[in-house]
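#struct-pred
JK: can someone run the complex with NAP? inputs below
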Amino acid sequence: MSKLKNKVAVVTGASKGIGASIAKYFATEGAKVVVNYASSKEGADKVVKAITDNGGTAIAIQADVSIQADVIRLFNEVKNTFGTLDILVNNAGIYNYEPIEQISAETFHQQFNINVLGSLFTIQESLKLFSEKGGNIINISSGASNTPLPTGSVYSATKAALDAITIALSKEFAGRNIRINSILPGIVETEGSHSTGFIGSEFEAKLVANTPLGRTGQPEDIAKAAIFLASDDAAWINGEKISVSGGIYGL
Ligand code: NAP
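RT: done, structure tokens with the ligand placed:
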């Protein structure tokens, strides 16, 4: 269990949900983990405690990824604490499903600023910390990128943009040994998917009915795929969009 031994990893949005699971699973594989959060200090501290109680290394750092000054401060703290960086997981994200009539400049920019611009800011800062040996970036996208659903136009657009960034940067990074890939989860049971009302809804039932493996995803389903992509097992995988969804097919 040491696929990420001594690697330093930043996981954005790791105070709960998929990000928290990735942080904990990375630590069990030997990574030193930076648990980023926006407002849930208590959640982030719990994730750090779970990791350190298990003999791992982790610190929590607050930063709103959509605010560039916060992101710069986050990576400065990473540098001061660990001196380097090996892995960035862009997981922080929000999903607002709203009909076309309700979309406003405010809700549009909120989703794009966190899901897209925030990832660009973190990638810019991570490049300054990756060593000459290279780096590894995982963007947590969504099946909604490939299969947009009604009322999800803006959210799906943010994730399609993130996937385009994955592919463009995989080419831009040529010669620098930096791998970048997108993970596209299907519906996953998290604090966020509970609070938006997806879990237990007809929407969830429809998604599960269209999932050959017949259940809702759990955060660890995504975390295990992230370990694979972050590890040398995936050394030849770059610029890919990988669905981790139980095989959900078109709705
Ligand atoms: P979640 O339970 O709502 O957790 C979201 C995390 O992101 C929290 O740690 C939150 O921090 C953080 N966050 C939100 N805005 C942030 C910001 N501006 N700066 C830094 N951190 C921020 O979400 P989730 O369901 O685990 O989803 C995680 C990712 O997976 C998202 O990118 C989402 O689009 C994607 N995804 C989820 C599903 C699903 O069904 N759950 C499916 C496909 C893709 P605070 O708690 O401090 O606010």
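RT: quick notes.
The chain has one domain: 8-245.
Residues 6 and 14 are 19 Å apart (CA to CA).
JK: thanks, will look after standup
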